[in-house]
Amino acid sequence: MEIGKLPNDVLKSLVFSNIKESRKEVLIRPSIGEDCAAVDFGEELCVISSDPITGTDNEIGTIAVHVSCNDIAASGSEPIGLMVTMLVPPGETEANLESVIKQLSVTAASLNVDILGGHTEVTDAVNRFVISITAIGKTTGKNVVKTSGAKPGDDLILTKYAGLEGTSILAHEHQFKLAEMLGSQIVARAQKLIEQISVIKEGMIAAKHGAHAMHDVTEGGVLGAIWEMCEASGCGAEVFKEQIPVLDETREICRYFNIDPLRLISSGSMLIAAKDGAALVDKLQSNGIMASVIGKITAGEKPLLHDENKIVIISPPYSDELYKVKKSC
Question: Is residue 150 a contact partner of residue 297, using CB atoms and an 8 Å limit?
Fold first, then answer.
């Protein structure tokens, strides 16, 4: 098997098929594209998501907190607390451990989220830090937004830019090589993109606007997120490549590594399906969040990408472009 998330066909055949359902309180269960579970606790819903960070060592604590909270925000819910499991390789220094803990703590505090507990262990099962976080959130009333809620006729909106997280990771991990080839200014701008990888603000705004579906853009990039939303919702889509915003630094770094920015991990971008996308874009931009309408949800069976003079079917996400770079370097 390739490095990265399990392919969706393997998830269906080997994972989901072996999960049994028994509790009526569980309202959202494992399925393609759904990053959160929801449990009915009476007056409110408890929303839960779990994510590991395995693709980078740089700013791993910062990324881990944002990625976990982003899943909660994509359901239109407010993140409250985090359970953190950290696996530390033998021989790691206490100074590096403290640095990662401070990243976790500072980032959580910046989002008004508490670290509730977890587990920290030194183990030879890993050769670098591995962090897995379970995030817990709450809804307002019992309103929750699913990835599977997109409806034909909805506009598809993307916040910020494609490939944000992957661009920052590559700029940190290959800083000197990229600075030599592309210039230090491009690398510095790319590294700072880590400051934009939270989608909590846009999640809250879009939920209040009445978004039908939301999905934070992680492994598989923008095109992977579009496929997952369409698959979960039983819909198609018409997406226009020229309308998907990509930063110059992302284009340059992806061109250097010969990878596709639209298939690159992109925490910090939120894919939203909603009526009247133009009004939502205006609302997001008035709150300082870059957003663009990139297409529409259709009643078709496949998501389609209009790329200059051709139309191609958007394929399911497989191993992220980030891992192509890791494999080749």
Answer: yes
d(CA 189, CA 194): 10
Residues 6+ apart with CB under 8 A from 111: 65, 66, 69, 79, 198, 200
What is the rounded CA–CA span in Å between residue 164 and residue 216? Answer: 12
Helix (H, G, I), strand (E, B) or coil at 67: helix
Per the DSSP assignment, residues forming a β-bridge with 34 are none
The pair of structure tokens assigned to 102 is 């401070």
| Main-chain dihedrals φ then ψ at residue 73, nearest 5 degrees | -65, -30
Cα separation, 291 vs 287, in Å, equals 11
Strand-pair category, 114-122 with 78-88: parallel
pLDDT at 55: 65
- Domains of the chain are 23-138 (3.30.1330.10), 147-328 (3.90.650.10)
CB 159 within 8 A of CB 199: yes
pLDDT (tens digit, 9 = 90+) per residue, 204-259?
Answer: 999 999 999 999 999 899 999 999 999 999 999 999 999 999 999 999 999 999 99
